[in-house]
Amino acid sequence: MLNWIFFDVGSTLVDETAAYQRFAHRCAMTLASHGKQVTGAEFFAKMQEVAALGEAPIRNAWAWYGLPDELRPRWSHEGETLYPDVLQTLEYLSQSYSLGIIANQAAAVLNRSGFEAYSVNGTHFDWRRETK
């Protein structure tokens, strides 16, 4: 019998589209300040191209332009939002299943994307921190 349902966070519960677009714009601005002419849309397209190859999109898209990693802007979660039906879906599923998150983010991920404001973290998810 199915007892648990696990979710990823990015692009599953949280829409990261605006955050990726903002990040691509910041990268393009930094690249331009170092003589690399690229738009935010072009950098975003390069991240998508790299991701489609199964590679790390941010790190490898940046490397493609030939600047050292220490010049790359750091990721910001600004612009991330919950998808519209996430809360209703989690409420419905939590009535019959234990819900969890399997992701490469820290446990604080639920605080960053508006989960806490909606009482999602304490209401819907059971936390069990697994370490290797």
List keywords for this structure.
two-stranded antiparallel sheet, two-stranded parallel ribbon, Rossmann fold, 6 helices, 132 residues, HAD family hydrolase, mainly alpha, HAD_sf
Largest sheet: 2 strands, parallel
Number of strands: 4
- Sequence of strands across the biggest β-sheet: 1-4
Give the helix proportion (percent range). 40-55%
Tell me the series of helices and strands, N- to C-terminal. Answer: EEHHHEHEHH
Q: CATH fold name of the largest domain, please?
A: Rossmann fold
CATH superfamily of the largest domain: HAD superfamily/HAD-like
Question: Span from first to last CA?
Answer: 27 Å
Report the average pLDDT across residues.
84
Q: Which runs of at least 5 residues are low in confidence (pLDDT < 50)?
A: none
What is the 3D form? elongated
- Counted up, domains total 2
Rg measurement, Å: 18 Å
β-sheet strand percentage: 5-15%
Question: How does CATH name the architecture of the largest domain?
Answer: 3-Layer(aba) Sandwich
- Please work out how many helical segments DSSP would assign: 6
Describe what you observe in this structure.
InterPro entries: HAD-like_sf, HAD_sf. This is HAD family hydrolase. It comes from Streptococcus cuniculi. The chain has 132 residues and is mainly alpha-helical. The chain folds into 2 domains: 4-15 and 80-124, Rossmann fold, CATH 3.40.50; 17-71, no CATH class. It has 6 helices and 4 strands. It has helices at 17-33, 40-52, 57-64, 86-94, 109-112, 120-124; strands at residues 4-7, 14-15, 81-82, 98-101. It has a two-stranded parallel ribbon. A two-stranded antiparallel ribbon has the order 2-3. Helix 1 packs across helix 2 (40-52) and helix 2 (40-52) crosses helix 3 (57-64). The longest helix is centred in the first third of the chain and has 17 residues, at 17-33. It is elongated.
